[in-house]
């Protein structure tokens, strides 16, 4: 069977110029789940931990635990490249936590990757019975959370 050939006068040709930009942070090895990566310092003893193997220039995530309260300090831009660190932070929340506080005072930009992180964290907090508090949420992240109607059961504080 022969396919009919399109009339050259009615053919639309579209050229798309796509620029790809690699993430500025190194990716974890393919055989390593970021949630299983060990902290670089003593997070379990309450000293705090930073996300494993990540430079602090673009984004950093620090998790500390004091008296059953987990504090997640975020700094920089929360975008697609921050997902491994964010998954690592969600995995640090365990049963028996009293509360989870996310300090976003040093976050200037957040895209939907940040919304996804907060949604996962909210679900994790529900599973372990701990309220979630967002602290120091700047103007742009707050607008995005308002736009998507993100429910914060524990509260949203500036």
Could you spell the SSE succession in H and E letters?
EEEHEHEHE
Over all CA atoms, what is the radius of gyration? 21 Å
Shape: globular
**What is the oligomeric state here?**
single chain
What structural category do the secondary elements indicate? alpha/beta
* Largest β sheet strand count, sense and barrel closure: 6 strands, mixed
> Helix segment count?
3
Number of strands: 6
Report the top-level CATH class. Alpha Beta
Q: What share of residues are in beta strands? A: 15-25%
Provide the domain count: 1
Average pLDDT score:
74
As residue ranges, the low-confidence spans are 6-23, 26-47, 53-57
CATH superfamily: STAS domain
**What's the N-to-C terminus distance?**
68 Å
Give a quick rundown of the structure.
By secondary structure, the protein is of the alpha/beta class.
Please describe what this structure looks like.
This protein is an alpha/beta fold and about 160 residues long. The chain has one domain (about 35-155): Transcription Regulator spoIIAA (2-Layer Sandwich), CATH 3.30.750. The chain contains three helices and six strands, in the order E-E-E-H-E-H-E-H-E. Strands 1-2-3-4-5-6 form a six-stranded mixed sheet. Helix 1 packs parallel to helix 2. The longest helix has 17 residues, at about 110-130. The chain is globular. The termini are far apart.
């Amino acid at each position: 069977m022969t396919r009919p050939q399109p009339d050259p006068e009615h053919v639309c040709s579209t050229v798309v110029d796509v620029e790809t930009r690699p993430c500025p942070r190194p990716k974890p090895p393919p055989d390593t789940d970021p949630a299983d990566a060990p902290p670089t310092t003593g997070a379990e003893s309450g000293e705090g931990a930073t996300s494993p193997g990540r430079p602090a220039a673009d984004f950093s995530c620090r998790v500390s635990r004091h008296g059953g309260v987990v504090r997640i300090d975020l700094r920089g831009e929360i975008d697609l490249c921050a997902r491994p660190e964010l998954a690592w932070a969600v995995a640090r929340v365990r049963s028996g936590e009293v509360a989870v506080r996310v300090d976003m005072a040093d976050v200037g930009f957040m895209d939907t990757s940040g919304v996804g992180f907060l949604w996962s964290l909210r679900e994790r907090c529900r599973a372990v019975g701990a309220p979630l508090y967002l602290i120091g949420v700047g103007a742009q992240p707050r607008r995005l959370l308002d736009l998507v109607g993100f429910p914060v059961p524990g509260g949203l504080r500036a």
